[in-house]
Amino acid sequence: MKQKDIALYIVIAFISAILAFLISSKLIVTPANRQQKVEKIDPISASFEAPSKEYFNEESINPTQVSGVGQATNQTPFNGTSQ
């Protein structure tokens, strides 16, 4: 190896070390920069308020009941035959 080659390798190693330091300082976060602010929320309680009597009362429609229009006489409506 010549003197020029050794000096070139030292310069390349020095420049690559500086670039590696600069890139790693941008990618790796320091503990001081790890802090993040979040909004504070109200705690969840076990109490439950009764629903409004305007919507939930004895005269309201019960959506769990079967409703229909007229009498359905065809027990198999999708079999391709008509009655």
Q: Count the DSSP helices.
A: 1
Q: Tell me the helix content.
A: 25-40%
Q: What percentage of amino acids are in beta strands?
A: under 5%
Q: Rough shape?
A: elongated
Order of helices and strands: H
- Give me the Rg, rounded: 38 Å
| Termini Cα gap | 101 Å
Give me the count of strands: 0
Low-pLDDT runs of 5+ residues are: none
Task: Outline the biggest β-sheet.
Answer: none
The helix/strand class is mainly alpha
Mean pLDDT: 82
Q: How is this structure best described in words?
A:
The longest helix is centred in the N-terminal third of the chain and has 25 residues, at 3-27. The termini are far apart. With 83 residues, the chain is an all-alpha fold. It is 30% helix and 0% strand. It has 1 helix and no strands. The mean pLDDT is 82.
Short characterization:
It contains 1 helix and no strands.
List the topology elements.
Elements: H1 3-27
Structure characteristics:
83 residues
